[in-house]
Amino acid sequence: MPLYEHVMIARQDLSNTQAESLIEHFGAVLSDNGGNVVMSEYWGVKTMAYKINKNRKGHYAYLRTDAPSTAVQEMERLMRLHDDVMRVLTIKVDEHEEGPSVQMQKREERGERRERRN
Description:
By secondary structure, the protein is α+β, with helices and mostly antiparallel strands. The protein has a four-stranded antiparallel β-sheet, with helices on one face. Strand 2 and strand 3 form a beta hairpin. It starts with a strand and ends in a 25-residue tail after the last strand. 19% of the residues are buried.
């Protein structure tokens, strides 16, 4: 089955447990349609670069999935209809990276940055 990565932004006025229950709910939607969630991470409340629906912050969540495209389309459809979800980004990948996402790694583990150009 194809591999996907999803990033979801939920409204800032939700509690942490409500945001995490959204992750579980959409994981269950994938499971019901023949897919499975390989890994999920809750990144917490983060400030966005611009306002979305008059919100400056949002709850970020990350999912790595192994699911058929019909399951992913159904999950995205339900995310768009859900009032608490503001944005969703889905990317098809060739393989999942091992370990936590870059967002969850400590700065020391991320590796060196490139040098700036003058």
